[in-house]
Amino acid sequence: YSSDSMDKMVNDYFNGSFKSMVSFFVKKKDMSVDELESILKEINKEH
């Protein structure tokens, strides 16, 4: 369910681009490079 909701949001608001969505949230929440790197490390652990 949550995956479908995320896909719909990405398609509706970011023209299908996950990169655009991530960029939007990074800018909106004023994330630091360290925070973004931490997220990337977590993602890489799962793959």
Describe the SSE topology.
Elements: H1 2-14, H2 18-28, H3 33-46
Tell me the strand percentage band.
under 5%
Number of helices: 3
Low-confidence segments: none
The termini sit apart by 21 Å
Mean pLDDT equals: 89
Helix content: over 70%
According to DSSP, the number of beta strands is: 0
Provide an overview of this structure.
This protein has 47 residues and is an all-alpha fold. The chain has one domain (2-46). It is 81% helix and 0% strand. The protein has three helices and no strands. It has helices at residues 2-14, 18-28, 33-46. The longest helix has 14 residues, at 33-46. The two termini are 21 Å apart. The relative contact order is 0.09.
What descriptors fit this protein?
47 residues; mainly alpha
Quick overview of this protein structure:
With 47 residues, the protein is mainly alpha-helical. It is built from three helices and no strands. It comes from marine sediment metagenome.
